[in-house]
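Figure S7 source data.
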Amino acid sequence: MKLQQLPQEFIAALPILEKIEGAGYEAYFVGGSVRDTLLGKPIHDVDIATSAFPKEVKAIFEHTVDTGIKHGTVMILDQGQGYETTTFRTESTYTDFRRPDEVTFVRSLAEDLQRRDFTINALALKSDGEVIDLFDGLKDLTDHRIRAVGKAEERFFEDALRMMRALRFSSQLGFEIEATTLQAIQDNAALLNNIAVERINTEFTKLLLGKNVWYAILELLRTGVHNYLPGLENSDIDLVGLADLLKQEQIDDVTVAWMLLTFELGLTADDAQIFLKSWKHSNELIKVVRSGLRLLNQLRIKDVTDWQLYQVGTAIQATLKVLDLSELPIESTSLQVRYEQLPIKEKQALALNGGDLTKTLALKPGPLFGKVLATLEYKVVMGELANDKPVLLKAATTIIQKDQQGK
Ligand SMILES: Nc1ccn([C@@H]2O[C@H](COP(=O)(O)OP(=O)(O)OP(=O)(O)O)[C@@H](O)[C@H]2O)c(=O)n1
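Tokens for the predicted cytidine-5'-triphosphate complex:
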């Protein structure tokens, strides 16, 4: 099959292929960008595979960066754009974060494509538009099927993360996982124990954000893969609940995805922190999920105060989204309106600050200082005091006097 029209990103990179070919080597576009082009989707990274060894690539181009030289990857810089160019290779196991431990460079494209994960990812595109399809990847693309290249088991032994990738692609693309490949996932799920959790996290997050997440979660459960994911062992019922919620609407926000998951798992904010840490999430994401969960869990038992709403702060949008998707009988719009109408949304918006306490009331920094500001903040949020400097100064004076009388 020959592509008549190439996307702009490939056209821009054509001179690179042609230059490598001109030096007497083979070079092709490979991987996700070829798959996505054939699916009519936008592409992000253009990956190139070549028969030239790294030092040969470096001899052809003036500007290169050794991004993964041991694994055969050299970045070619051209017109402000970087192109990852990898020598044809076979590979053994991955224990490292993202690169295989050992690779053997080869000169044939067929051997390189043979070590790739799925047939839809094992297509190569030549500079003249010819699609090289050695494993019926085109048919699988048309039939919406994820099928391992060759023996699925061998591919998963090379890199167990590929089992997560199969589920992730099925969610993103809305493809079915072919029966033998699915069986091999079921048989080898325990190999995921050897994989760095950061890598699993990346794939699982993409799965949660996919359009066919409902199917992917059911396949995840069917194959037992969830039993090898941190904190998800034996959480079948919660995951089915999550799958049902996500059936209603595709989500596009990583934080919302993880908040929804922890909410469905019925975790408290503290337990969610432990759970998310085990997935190696950032402190920033953990903080947002924690405050959102606190509010949502409060809503499970009773209404929330404006102060609780205020404390959710920047996590409010994600939280309201989760509320919308959850089964709690509360309208997110009413909370949204209440949040919008809060007198202030952050401490900095208080009409009185520490400087005013020092200058106008001669209060020195210390425990009382913090107590005064915190009390004013609470009262303003709760509508007990207007956010107005003279009003707050008066209230501050009263708090200080009471404190001194108390001593
Ligand atoms: N564990 C892996 C990871 C990657 N690949 C191969 O390397 C290519 C590029 O991998 P990557 O950039 O991780 O994924 P893409 O398939 O490009 O998908 P996306 O960019 O959408 O994540 C894949 O298409 C596949 O051929 C593989 O065989 N096994």
